[in-house]
Amino acid sequence: xxxxxxxxxxxxxxxxxxxxxxxxxxxxxxxxxxxxxxxxxxxxxxxxxxxxxxxxxxxxxxxxxxxxxxxxxxxxxxxxxxxxxxxxxxxxxxxxxxxxxxxxxxxxxxxxxxxxxxxxxxxxxxxxxxxxxxxxxxxxxxxxxxxxxxxxxxxxxxxxxxxxxxxxxxxxxxxxxxxxxxxxxxxxxxxxxxxxxxxxxxxxxxxxxxxxxxxxxxxxxxxxxxxxxxxxxxxxxxxxxxxxxxxxxxxxxxxxxxxxxxxxxxxxxxxxxxxxxxxxxxxxxxxxxxxxxxxxxxxxxxxxxxxxxxxxxxxxxxxxxxxxxxxxxxxxxxxxxxxxxxxxxxxxxxxxxxxxxxxxxxxxxxxxxxxxxxxxxxxxxxxxxxxxxxxxxxxxxxxxxxxxxxxxxxxxxxxxxxxxxxxxxxxxxxxxxxxxxxxxxxxxxxxxxxxxxxxxxxxxxxxxxxxxxxxxxxxxxxxxxxxxxxxxxxxxxxxxxxxxxxxxxxxxxxxxxxxxxxxxxxxxxxxxxxxxxxxxxxxxxxxxxxx
Length: 547
Description:
The structure is a single chain. By secondary structure, the protein is mainly α. The protein folds into two domains: 3-319, no CATH class; 333-545, Methane Monooxygenase Hydroxylase, Chain G, domain 1 (Up-down Bundle), CATH 1.20.58. 76% of the residues lie in helices and 0% in strands. The chain contains 23 helices and no strands. The protein has helices at residues 3-35, 38-45, 50-64, 67-80, 85-98, 101-112, 119-132, 136-167, 178-195, 198-210, 216-229, 232-238, 243-281, 288-305, 309-319, 339-367, 373-392, 400-426, 436-451, 465-491, 497-524, 526-529, 534-538.
């Protein structure tokens, strides 16, 4: 093979692999656009049990044609607090199985049936439709074009490998001994890391096997390497990330390594079984057998892990313990690339800060002591970090409901700052005293605190807004009426002036606390209720100060 032929071969291999990878990207982006928020809703909804999470992860990956997309989305949801770490494990296992579907698509459609003849029409049809349609239909058109580009890539790879197959044989690669298999597994890992796509590495392996350049033993080793190499994306995302992101990434890496080790041990038995079937039943499996091997060992590993998924999760949590401020653990810098998820991370953080402030106030009011200044300082620091993170989230042309959610987040953050400062600097338990009017308001605040419950991890329980509003408005009315009656009683000498001023201060403090709690609960609950009150938010003023 002269230099010109070598250059042509290299360009065709690079171009074919690039076209295949580009096709996968177009399919992933197109189907994600077509699905809208459906993929996120499925991930969040069907994860209560490990088996359901496993099937959800596999199904979504088959649809999106990208385990990396599913894994990265899962990592983002865990970091944002939308999913718990234990829920994410089943999705990660399922995504590893789902990504093997690309191999079946290549083996059956791309190689066996020669669908490359339809590739260019698919590209043209998808491109034209993309120009004339909008919204989700445009996403479907993009996916159609992506399938065409992917099959063009497979055809280019086959064309490039055709002359090479006459001068290159499996004997030129490491043979089916232990050392040879290890070298080929490493080669599969390197190829996947280089392309950042296990689908491309598997497609190239299947094409080489179909062309006779590698045998079954060598093909299985390369497929195992591709399966392990796909974890490189998770590893890169985990660098410098929060503990929850690192845990999810480590779980993905450990599972892929375990599945690869299992496959490596089963290779001799698998090859013996294939050869036995070919000899006794005169079967010719073709590249499909490698796709079956990829799916088979991944499914087997998933079935072995699922019953012990809780123990697996406990192990990962011990390996990567939680460090840093607990209240801001959801605020991972990688989330700002997905504004919707980043906003949800902020909302979850604010709800947890809210719960911390409520617990501090509840103890202080019931025990008639000053709130714990140290705990309130921690919450104020968390709020400042949340405000900084919120400033990093880019504004985009998002739907109106997302914009309203963002506006509610800003309102909630403002009220949380005011409530924390009021509790830290203005709260004086001596102001409550024994004055009946103050004690009535105090009992109402205790009732209000009891109605606002913190959200469990991964949960989405909401607040009952109407009762909180009634209690807050009643507190404001009691303060206004109490102020007039206390000043009158003080002027007539019924109570001492100092006692009246203390009581006035107590009514003001309790009204302030009640008002901010109601407004925080209202704004943090906007998404849960499925609606937003823009007019209500516009009236968000300190009404409790008006007499």
